[in-house]
Amino acid sequence: MVLAMVLGVLIFVVEMIALLCRWSRTKKPKKFEQVEAFLELHEERATNRYKYSEVKKMTNFFKDKLGEGGYGSVFKGQLPNGGAMVAVKILSETKGNGDDFINELASISKTFHRKLITYLGYCVDRGRRALIYEFMPNGSLEKYIYYKVSAKAQSRLGLMTLYNIAIGIADGLQYLHEGGVSRKADVYSYGKMLLEMAGGRKIFDVQTETYYPPWIYDKLVANENLELYGITTPEEELTALKMILVGLWCIQTDPAVRPYMSEVVQMLKGSLDTVPIPPRPSSI
């Protein structure tokens, strides 16, 4: 009787272990199954794949942080054996089955354009993921947008230089969107950047708690002084006004109202008279 009970318990335990093993096989990898399946095809394109240990060495154990965003952090690094300097984007934890990583990897791996930074490789190692790009020595554009009253000063680039940079970025985004990359968030972000470039100030002033888009819109339609920083010529004033109008179109709340990047390029390169006044942007 006791022997039968012991055997019964053992059989039950063995069955449970077998069941758990089957469950773990179907459950555990599912998050990365699609990623790995994609990578098998992706590796045929001779893209460099690095181990996470190599990424750590490459970045000197993540010593020099260049920036941080919603998808992860970016670190300065160097390719093995004294290779080129790189920017290593460490992606945050994947949700779902890894679609976000696959989409980004698929897009950048087939994207080549003279106005886009070069994609050099990636890392997928036990759920830890990274994308590796060429290093841009001049740093982020953010350092050159805002007008600083003090400073020996004016690290802000001239408006016409910023205008040409804005067109270059628009050209690159247009190319990406023709490669199938989602446009909605890109256009909105581009519009915010364009407004900051034209106005020389952040989209939201923490000190005065002023949200720039409706503020500048109201001044624009009332034909008031736009209080633009660093504008010295009539040409710059007209260019800044065009950038503001295009930026206001790009940040419309309804994504359907936002222009395509091809339309953005046309408006920026065209005459100010051809850019209509957009609907008033919503407040925060």
From TrEMBL:
Sequence ranges assigned to domain Protein kinase in this UniProt record: 60-284
Gene3D superfamilies: Phosphorylase Kinase, domain 1, Transferase(Phosphotransferase) domain 1
Location within or outside the cell: Membrane
Classification via Pfam families: PK_Tyr_Ser-Thr
Chief location bin: membrane
Keyword Phosphoprotein recorded: no
GO MF annotations, alphabetized: ATP binding; protein serine/threonine kinase activity
One GO cellular component term noted in the UniProt record for this chain: membrane
Topology relative to the membrane: Single-pass type I membrane protein
Keyword terms, alphabetized: ATP-binding, Glycoprotein, Kinase, Membrane, Nucleotide-binding, Receptor, Serine/threonine-protein kinase, Signal, Transferase, Transmembrane, Transmembrane helix
Residue intervals passing through the bilayer: 6-23
Positions contributing to ATP binding: 89
Protein name in UniProt: Pr5-like receptor kinase
Source organism of the structure: Thalictrum thalictroides (Rue-anemone)
Phylogenetic placement of the source organism: Eukaryota, Viridiplantae, Streptophyta, Embryophyta, Tracheophyta
